[in-house]
Design brief:
Blueprint: H1 3-6, H2 12-23, H3 38-41, E1 48-52, E2 60-64, H4 66-72, H5 90-102, E3 106-114, E4 119-133, E5 136-145, E6 150-151, E7 159-170, E8 183-187, H6 191-194
Antiparallel strand pairs: 1-2, 1-5, 3-4, 3-7, 4-5, 4-6, 7-8
Length: 200
C-alpha cells in the first residue's frame, strides 16, 4: 500500500472528522442521522457526502458538499455511482461499498476520478457509518482531491478508479468484513504520477 495513503486516517482533517462523528454517538451505538448537525460538522460541510445503498448494485448520494459538486458537476440523487466505476474495478468496487453497509466499520479509500472536462485527480475519502433508521445504515464521508495529474479530452460521464483504487477498513468496534482483506491495492497510481500528484 502506498505509504502516504496509509497515513490518511491519521491526517488532521480526517482525525477531526472522526472525533466529531465519535462525539455524536450515544454509548456504543452508531450516531443517528439527526445527530449529524451543521454546528458539529461545520468545518467539513463543503467536503461532506452521505451515501445510501438502497439495494444491491445501487449506490446513491443523498448529500454532496459544495467543493465536491463543483468538481463533479452532476450531483443528482438518482445517479448510481457504481455505474461510473471503471469496468475492470466494478466487481471490486461493488464488493467494497456493499461491505461497508453490511458491517458497520470505517473505510478509507484512494481513487482516481476522470472529470467531464477531461482532467484527472486523485481523491481520498474517509467513510463512517451512521444510523438513518432502525436497521438502515448510511455512510457519512469526507473527501478531498489532489491537483490535476493528467488532462485529456472532455468526456460525457465521470469515470472512477480508472487509474487508481485503494481501500482500507478501520474497525470502530463492530469488526471488519471477514471475507475481504483489511487493506487492498486494487490499482496503484503509476509511479510517475504518484510522486507529485497529492497535495491535499
Amino acid at each position: 500500500m502506498v505509504e502516504d495513503f496509509t497515513r490518511t486516517v491519521h491526517e488532521f482533517s480526517f482525525r477531526r472528522f472522526f472525533d466529531s462523528w465519535q462525539a455524536a454517538r450515544v454509548g456504543d451505538d452508531l450516531p443517528a442521522r439527526k445527530a449529524i448537525t451543521l454546528r458539529d460538522f461545520a468545518p467539513f460541510v463543503s467536503d461532506l457526502l452521505i451515501y445510501e445503498h438502497p439495494q444491491p448494485g445501487i449506490l446513491q448520494c443523498r448529500l454532496m458538499g459544495e467543493h465536491i459538486s463543483d468538481r463533479v458537476k452532476i450531483y443528482n440523487r438518482h445517479v448510481n455511482w457504481l455505474d461510473l466505476v471503471a469496468d475492470d474495478m466494478h466487481v471490486a468496487g461493488t464488493a467494497w461499498w456493499s461491505s461497508l453497509f453490511a458491517v458497520p466499520c470505517a473505510g478509507v479509500m484512494q481513487f482516481s476520478t476522470g472529470f467531464l472536462n477531461g482532467t484527472n485527480r486523485i481523491s481520498r475519502a474517509y467513510l463512517l457509518p451512521i444510523q438513518h433508521a432502525p436497521g438502515v445504515v448510511h455512510l457519512l464521508g469526507l473527501a478531498s482531491a489532489s491537483d490535476v495529474y493528467e488532462t485529456g479530452n472532455p468526456r460525457e460521464k465521470l469515470i472512477i478508479s480508472e487509474h487508481c483504487f485503494q481501500t482500507k477498513y478501520v474497525d470502530i468496534g463492530f469488526g471488519i468484513p471477514a471475507d475481504l482483506p483489511e487493506a487492498s491495492d486494487h490499482k496503484v497510481l503509476k509511479n510517475a504520477w504518484a510522486k507529485q500528484v497529492y497535495r491535499g
